[in-house]
Amino acid sequence: MSNDLAIATVTATLKRILEDAVTGHVQGTSMTVTVGQPDSKDAIEVDKGKVNIFLYQATANPGWRNADLPTRRSNGTLSQRPQLALDLHYLISFYGDRSKFVPERLMGIVMKRLHVQPFLTRRMIDDTVNDQSYDFLKLSNLAKQPELIKFSPVSLSLEELSKIWSIFFQTQYVLSTAYQGTVVLIEPDDDLAPSLPVTDRRISVAATPPPIPISQPIITLICSEAGANELITPESMLLIQGQALTQGAIDFIQLDEQQLPPTEANIRNTAIILRLPATEVGVKTLQIVYQNNLRSNLAKFIVHAAEGGTS
Fold first, then answer.
1. Sorting pLDDT into bands at 50, 70 and 90, what band is 86?
2. How do residues 223-239 score in pLDDT, each as one tens digit?
3. To which H or E segment does residue 299 belong?
4. Which of 138, 143, 186, 237 lies in disulfide reach of 84, CB 3.0 to 4.6 Å?
């Protein structure tokens, strides 16, 4: 992460990039890049071209805002360093001889440069920090933060531009554009309380739980094993078909009020064969219950009287 010199380092690096972009690219006009609030005197001096960078706002980055939570343990000690994530908002203004379209030409150069190379690379940052004219930034560690700072244009309406320029006292509006630099991560140098060492190691073995069905078991058909057109009678063999019926360990088969153990059933890959116990004729309800409390749907079938009697 970066220290508290990060914001100044971003602005200084941006200034060096724009100086490199505009120097010598507008013939017959000397070029300068300045940093600070726009000045009314700059609009009067048309004999030279100028690009001014003004950091007018810093806002919390929504993507990184709560990435460091929680930062403290229950006893109040620091578990990890708090992290401040910021987006920097810049107003870039262009000055020069309007009859020669110097402001427009400078805008084109700057916007092309930031579009072709929108990132502040670690090499650019290191070059700025090592520049003798920026010796006050020599302790900056912005180049070590994991995220590269990216500049993207911000579309401001005429009303928004007017509000920004209204804060400059008696300053004439000049051709300007806005850019956002994201993300700057600032972290303090606070020492973290060390975690307590492990005093005791205990290894235990737990029984493996029964396999859990990967999908909901569904009964789609209950019929006689002798054939789908055969009547189901007391003590006949039932054929139970469906989906995912055998993917888990069966605890019991619920037949009305009876709980039949799985040992009374022949469980196959795609179906279950169950001998129907002695029961009264009529409509019966069947459900398969698994050891992990998963249950199939309730399925109904009719038990007919033996020897062709009605149900």
1. very high
2. 988 888 888 888 888 99
3. strand 299-303
4. 186
